[in-house]
Design goal:
Structural class of chain B: alpha+beta
Oligomer: heterodimer
Structural class of chain A: alpha/beta
Strand order of the largest sheet of chain A: 1-2-3-4-5
Order of helices and strands of chain A: EEHEHEHEH
Number of helices of chain A: 4
Helix content of chain A: 40-55%
Radius of gyration of chain A: 15 Å
Largest interface: A-B, 21 and 27 residues
Number of strands of chain B: 5
Largest sheet of chain B: 5 strands, antiparallel
Order of helices and strands of chain B: EHHEEHHEE
Number of helices of chain B: 4
Helix content of chain B: 25-40%
Strand content of chain A: 15-25%
Strand content of chain B: 25-35%
Number of strands of chain A: 5
Strand order of the largest sheet of chain B: 1-2-3-5-4
């Protein structure tokens, strides 16, 4: 059966979806990711969907699920590289992408995850607009 | 409306949905449909194929390239299954309604993504859904 590879890079997990997603593949990714977060105690997940041409309600829900599941396992999820046409379609479809962080590209996504990591490392300093 | 090209695709398993997507993409590229409209059409098709597999136990998709005038061409997809049918179509067309475990966005969301949407269903006999997306529309 097909599988989407998950790469471990330090405290983060990287996923690049290079193929057309179908339901079972997306569900497999969801369970694999959760297992990997648990195994490696990862703090962040970066999912690159720049070569994904369509995200329908099911796949959108899986992305949301991954974000929420990783959150309760103390990891943040950032989805990067969404094509503009996909963003337009998702909103017209009416899909709420709640709890999913997004960035325009992998670089910015990694920065976001690193920020999140620093925030959790230094408790009490987890707000950037702390006014004295 | 004239039909320029037609093809029937059998849908029995999830991977068939990927095949359908590729065929629809080929047709859409051939008639020079814009990227956003292509994405909307493919997403709509993907929703309907899932419904067909989940509730209708598979079925057939009739894929047609149609034209209304010299300038206006589009793609019409007709999804038919022989599943249990939909009891209350009005309810099924409302956001958030689902008899399964989904978000209930499939049918109303699909309707928002295409130019024409027609659904007929007879309980016990099956469901037929026709969607049409114009190249520029």
């Amino acid at each position: 059966m097909d599988k989407i590879p998950i790469l471990k890079m330090g405290p983060f997990l990287l996923v690049t979806v290079q193929v057309d997603l179908y339901d079972r593949l997306a569900l497999g990714l969801e369970s694999d990711l959760v297992a990997m977060i648990n195994k490696h105690e990862s703090k962040g997940v970066l999912i690159d969907i720049s070569s994904v041409n369509i995200v329908d309600s099911f796949m959108g829900r899986i992305l949301g699920n991954i974000a929420q599941m990783s959150r309760i396992l103390d990891a943040h999820t950032v989805v990067v590289g969404m094509q503009p046409a996909v963003a337009i379609t998702l909103i017209e479809l009416g899909l709420p992408m709640t709890g999913v962080h997004t960035s325009l590209n992998v670089e910015k996504g990694m920065e976001l995850l690193k920020e999140k990591l620093l925030d959790t490392d230094e408790p009490g300093n987890n707000s950037h607009d702390n006014s004295e | 409306m004239t039909i320029l090209n037609k093809e029937t695709i059998n849908i029995q398993k999830e991977q068939d949905a990927v095949f359908l997507r590729n065929r629809v993409t080929e047709y859409a590229v051939k008639i020079k449909m814009g990227l956003v409209n292509q994405t909307k059409l493919l997403t709509a098709a993907s929703e309907l194929v899932r419904n067909m597999l989940r509730y209708g136990g598979g079925g057939q998709v009739l894929c047609e390239v149609v034209s209304a005038s010299l300038l206006q061409t589009g793609i019409r997809l007709t999804f038919s299954d022989k599943g249990p049918g939909i009891k209350d179509i009005d309810a099924a067309m409302k956001d958030g309604f689902s008899t399964g475990k989904s978000l209930g966005l499939g049918l109303p969301g699909t309707k928002r993504l295409v130019n024409q949407f027609e659904i007929t269903s007879r309980p016990g006999k099956g469901t037929t859904i026709m969607i049409l997306k114009w190249k520029n529309g």
